[in-house]
């Protein structure tokens, strides 16, 4: 491309490539890209997209696995002024169709396999073909108003697109909450369709570090993950609470050689932190409990956890640079010790929800008593300590987090109810302290007998893996409270303890339970080992497949 792109995320990364062209930027197995090579990849993709008609502000879906090609493709889209729309290849066709239509995508970049659910007007391009584009002059493009569209679970039954701006990502690379610097190596472990990518890919590239791609089989196997973190000399890693708990249950020394370990997505158990520090007495690793929302660009607060951690709850800490965290009680700031809703402000706040003006106006608000500044209402309830540190105490709505993924129960219920045999459905989460997180449960009232295989296929075709209930219970009726709402406490009390999956002759660990939750839903009619007709409803099905300690399947 001629000249330089003015302003934005791509500009900052490309400026690094000019100052330090030989520094290592991306490592993906045997493939290593220095900053100059990464810039060349981005230039090839940008030129290829330009020749295919992509212009500033147009949305380009990216359906690629975690890889060096993914990084180069995203940077190329940004360089041509496009909007990156991460697309999960595991999505049901209907969900992908909605995302591509809602985002107004003109093109999908794929790995050779065209994703299902393409609208007719959307064209396709293979990433390898774009990366092989012969370089040549092409017009410069300024950044789009928003650079990323991340789709999350929606309250109305369909995923909603969060419009993330460059400024929110640039803020993540500001010093003050972590150690950054040239040559520091960041692990890239996240699903490429989720916003953790904003941290794992762009923070190292903005600060002169290196993004190290961790392959799926390695990321899912504690023994291999520990070896990879050591071999690749990883300095910083971001993991979900559930993943951290599951991995260290099998490999207590995993992460012990990593300087900074950021853990978030669900409440972090104090006993887990104490046990990890106790199991690694000589480690200099610093654990950080982080909190974030896609609507505030991945991370908003961070709390470094001392080895001698005190208290019963791990706080989410203080706001990141360029971020404001405000506990709001009605029309005023909350007093220390008072329960209030968490509002987030600053550079990380997203532009809003794509094509959802009413929900945008409800969640993104201006506070007159804060000089009209704009904030995102998280729906999380917090308590403020005397020093300004925050602790999450609950939710103001039904939204839950499972395995680090945000889930709107209403969206799951809507899809379950599209099965002709289901009359009523209620979805909720139940915390499993032993696994370090929560599991998603569904309760259904049937119109008539439904073969479980038919129900399971319905879930597979209508819900992505992260939104499929871990267990489904058949009930005769949904209990209600005096005010007419579903009595969730009664359902949870009758359901029995969280599933452990015992009874198949395989030793079950927290890691295996996590593997089960990431499988594509329950398989087969297998009565739960904790089933008791006297205390709980009949168990529709239980996952009969699992991930072993070596990462394979039985």
The helicity comes to: 25-40%
Beta-strand level of the residues, as a percent range? 25-35%
- Over the alpha carbons, how many angstroms does the gyration radius reach? 23 Å
Which CATH class of the domain at 400-541?
Alpha Beta
**Would you count the extended β strands for me?**
28
How many helices in DSSP terms?
17
Briefly, what is this?
The protein is of the alpha/beta class. It is built from 17 helices and 28 strands. Among the domains are: 1-20 and 32-144, Rossmann fold, CATH 3.40.50.980; 315-395, Luciferase, domain 3 (Roll); 400-541, ANL, C-terminal domain (GMP Synthetase, Chain A, domain 3, 2-Layer Sandwich), CATH 3.30.300.
Structure description:
The chain is of the alpha/beta class. Among the domains are: 1-20 and 32-144, Rossmann fold; 315-395, Luciferase, Domain 3 (Luciferase, domain 3, Roll), CATH 2.30.38.10; 400-541, ANL, C-terminal domain (GMP Synthetase, Chain A, domain 3, 2-Layer Sandwich), CATH 3.30.300. Helix content is 27%, strand content 26%. It has 17 helices and 28 strands. The strands form 7 sheets. Strands 16, 17, 18, 20, 21 and 22 form a 6-stranded antiparallel sheet that branches. A 5-stranded mixed sheet has the order 11-12-13-14-15. β16 and β17 form a beta hairpin. α1 (9-19) crosses α2 (35-51) and α11 (241-250) crosses α17 (510-517). The relative contact order is 0.09.
